[in-house]
Amino acid sequence: MAIRVAPIGAADAGSLATLACREDVLRFGDHTSDAQQATWRSWLGSPDPNLGLTLGAFVGGQLEAALKLAPFTTRRRVHGASVHLLASDEPFGDAALDALLRAAFDTGDRWLQVLRYELVCPVDHPRVEGLFAAHGLALEARLRRSLRDRRGTALLDEVVLARVAHGAEREPLGSPLEIPPRASRRATVRLRPARPSDAAALASSMSEPIVVWGTLQLPFQRIERWGERLKTRPPARTTFLIAEVSGALAGAGALTVPDEARREHTGTIGMHVATAAQGQGVGTQLMAALLEDADRRGLSRVELSVYADNERARRLYERAGFVIEGRSRRGSFRDGGYADDLLMARVRAP
How much is the pLDDT for 9? Predict the structure, then answer.
């Protein structure tokens, strides 16, 4: 029977819910059984084609598989997009999924300027070395204990697969910025929760060239942006700390817990140290405080990413118990070209 690939939208939410709750679809997905149409209307995302692409594979008028291509919204990662699938793990689902992947990659390559596609799935997914590999999705990382099983009784490993298109080989224009030498002694650091009055200092330090080089920040940041972020962050899922040395902002770090039932045992850390304070132990003390909060929250997995050539930061993370789980090829845009990211995590027994 012929397979028809077509866009899906709000009118298809009922069919999408039925598909998602099928046992053969649930087995290798990262979602939970939820028949609420509102949930799947939300999954579809914006109807604006500039913000994503949602396709369905129909067989005899019935929805057999669905794919969402969601471009990353971080400015320095807009060349990438995540691939989300709802498809049967049974062999007869391969034809429908093959048609969806062909359509999505063709559209992304030719019209959406997507240079990097990412797909995360359980490590034992039957298509990892078959259909996914045939479409150019190569294994980049194994995420340890990153997904809770559907019954909530075990933690599962996942793999990150990626397809890097022509054009992502563009190299950075310059060389790595010179990092200040390590100080002879550690600074006296005061750690405290961030508050809205920190907006000006954060905007200034986040715009420093060496901070922009080592993070995903952008130059010339506005104070209002940080003021709004500090006012609206959800405290139940975010810990945001400020490090001060001699009363001045020396760095900042955040721990964020995702709002996904099967990933609530995980947390993501992002941090930076201001140029004048680098090499004085500020990052070490920030990391220790964030991990202490992670332990207090009962998180068994804490993850982060770091540029592959940022050796000082990588060593700091390794001393804190993080190990490299994989390499994200051309994951970020930096200094006029594309740079690789290392995916790192600290994993402890729940």
Answer: 94
Tell me if 156 is assigned to some domain: yes
Query: Residue 134 is encoded by which pair of tokens?
Result: 């045939």
DSSP-derived secondary structure letter, 223:
H
Q: Please tell me the distance from the alpha carbon of residue 326 to that of residue 343, in angstroms, as a whole number.
A: 5
Instruction: For residue 307, give the nearest of 203, 179, 176 by alpha carbon.
Output: 176
Phi-psi region of 113 (alpha: psi -120 to 50; beta: other; left: phi over 0): left
Structural domain span for residue 282: 189-347
Do residues 199 and 313 both lie within one domain? yes
- Give residue 184's pLDDT: 66
CATH code of 210's domain: 3.40.630.30
Q: How many domains does the chain have?
A: 2
How many residues make up the chain in this entry?
350
Q: Indicate left, alpha or beta for 132 from its phi (over 0: left) and psi (-120 to 50: alpha).
A: alpha
Residue 259 within any structural domain of the chain? yes
Answer for the pair 162, 119: CB distance below 8 angstroms, yes or no: yes
Residue 86, strand partner residues:
66
CA–CA dist 179, 168 (Å, integer): 26
**Model's pTM, two decimal places?**
0.93
Rounded Cα–Cα distance for residues 186 and 182 (Å): 9
Predicted confidence at residue 92, as pLDDT, reads 75
pLDDT-flagged residues of the chain (< 70): 174-177, 184
Q: How far apart are CA 147 and CA 152, in angstroms?
A: 9
CB 26 within 8 A of CB 46: no
pLDDT number for residue 91: 79
Rounded CA-CA distance 249/282 in Å is: 11
